[in-house]
Amino acid sequence: MNLPYEWMIGLRYTRAGKRSSRNSFISFISLISVSGIALGVAALIVVLSVMNGFEKEVTARMLSVLAHVEVFDARGSMPDWRAQAQAAFRNPEVRGAAPFVETEGMLVRDDTMKPAVIRGILPDMEPQVSDVARQMREGRLGLLTAGSSNIVLGSVLARSLGVHVGERITLMTAAPVAQTAPGQGGVAGVLPRPHAFTVAGIFEAGHYQFDSTLAFVNLDDAEALAGLTAPSGLRLRLADMNAAPRVALELKRSMTGELFMRDWSRVNATWFAAVQSQKHMMFIILAMIVAVAAFNLVSTLVMTVRDKRAEIAILRTLGASPGAVMRIFIVQGTLVGLLGTLIGIGLGVLVALNIDVIVPLIERLSGAHFLDKDIYFISEMPSDVHWDDVARVGGVAVLLAFIATLYPSWSAARAQPAEALRYE
Known about the structure:
Layout: H1 5-15, H2 28-63, E1 69-73, H3 81-89, E2 94-109, E3 112-121, E4 136-139, E5 150-154, H4 155-161, E6 168-176, E7 190-203, H5 208-211, E8 214-218, H6 219-226, E9 233-238, H7 244-254, E10 259-263, H8 264-267, H9 269-307, H10 309-317, H11 322-353, H12 355-366, H13 373-376, H14 387-413, H15 417-421
Parallel strand pairs: 3-8, 5-7
Antiparallel strand pairs: 1-9, 1-10, 2-3, 2-6, 2-9, 4-7, 5-8, 6-7
Helix pairs in contact: 1-11, 2-9, 2-11, 2-14, 9-11, 9-14, 11-14
């Protein structure tokens, strides 16, 4: 082998810690260090993968209702929405477009009142930009015809109001005082205006925010509720949702009129920022576990240095420099850290890729159920392995192992040959 002698000796020390165990792969204390690093790395990869899986699952459920890009007109409405939709389709990323109106109101049923976001849509065009038609649990989205006064509610919203398909419900919206009859008063310049609607369907997106606050009506009915004569804007679906910020900028430049764009990542910017913050904090916390395991190498190398004092002294008398001695133990410690990291990566990726099998097995053995569908809307633990996370975890683990070798290696390099050989 054409390796420097520091590497050869470091490899030899890694393979055998004591003369009585020369045929073992590593000594017991090194095995503990390797196991600690491997478990820490595996835990970090599994946790990050599960968090990625939850983020991916929630994002998919959000985008089943949200558009990838929303286009608004500065005038408050978009009477030329068909021409603007054709202009948007000139961008190769755009796959669907549909007009919409969005307003707010209060849904009332007996003594129960719930705030809601009312979205006006065209049922025949809505499947181009959302999956609501496929998420219908009762009724049909196609029943939202113009002038029908039909409404489709989210499942949680319908349950909290205690309504079912075919029942009547009242929608309260705000009407400016100037539009009411003379002599009538109002709070803060507005009066509540009631509208009678019939529940034509119930959808379930699997996302609490939308299932508990969102309701759909026909576009014409929504325009009447909002006091508009045209849609508020366009909702677009793209071939690649991750390209939404870039496509929004391209559409801003290519489409005519005083328009402004909003992509899906900006709509829920606070949520995504919170998720990223949690991932960073989880990475730091679990990296401390890897750090504790990595710094077990300090005790391993200190014991090795004390056991090898005579060999170190002989190397020094043969002409080895303090730097060469230091490199021997750096190689030993780094190899132990690298071995533990590789084992941990393999174990972590294996568990993360098969978590859909492992978690049900643990649930059957323990009798516990980790995810309640009534709370989380999902019954299986999601996992999504990001290889950049795996590389980052591995790099941090190896770096911590390298740092842990510095003091013992420096201590070995300071050993005096005469002192070490005095009692040999």
